[in-house]
Each structure stands twice: as C-alpha cells, then as structure tokens.
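Retro notes, structure queue

What went well: the backlog is down to a handful. What didn't: a couple of records were mislabeled last round, so from now on we paste the full input next to the output in the thread. Example, using Integral membrane protein from Lentzea xinjiangensis:
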Amino acid sequence: MLKFALKLDGVASFGLGLLTVLIRPEIGMPVGWQVGLGLFCVVYGVGVFLLGTRPGPDRRIVLLVIAGNLVWATDSVLTAAVKWFPLTTAGVVLVVAQGLAVLGFAVLQFLGLRRAASANDRGTRPRPRSHA
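Corresponding output:
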C-alpha cells in the first residue's frame, strides 16, 4: 500500500506539474509562481515515484513526504481561503481540489507506513522461549 501511495503521488504530481508548465491554465496566479510550482511538482513527482520503487522506502524520507504533503494541502486551502492571489473560480476549484488530493496521498502514505511497520514488527520479534 505504501509503495502504491508513493507512486500514485509521484505520477499525479508529475502530471499536474507538466500540465501546469506546458499549458499554464489561467487560474489567477502569477505566471512565475505557476511555472515555479509546476517545475517543483515535476521534480517532486519523479523523486516520490522513485521512492515508491525502492524495495523498502526509508521511513524518515516517507515521513518527510507526508509532512510536506500536509503542508502543501494546508497551504492550498489557505491560498484559496485567504486569497493570497486573485484566483479565478476555476483557480479556486483547482487549488482546493489538488490540495484535497494531496491530503489523500498523505493519508494513504501514513496508513501504508503504519501497515509496513506493523508487518515488520511481526516478522522481526524474537519468539518467546518456552520453559518446558
């Protein structure tokens, strides 16, 4: 589940970043910000996807990805609510929708990390010695 969540986050981030850089839909955000965020998403997407291909993704890096996703999701909602940019209606919908998707990735990654940790705990604990 963890590897799937990381790969899904990677593909979605890469795709959104690429579309943002190539198409630059009019959402009311300054073009420089939009292109910069799009390029970040492309690089981030590749990195997170590659992390999901590892036999055992490093727990610390996964926690960093989860924390980053939570910050991104919060920032997305704040961007729409506080009106840091004069977003169009389509811009508000897009920013909030991708923020919710990123929150979903963070939840899936957290659940996958917990599942992986509990599977490792079951497999690595020494058996109790019998006193027979």
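Agreed that this is the format going forward. Reviewer comment attached to the example: The mean pLDDT is 89.
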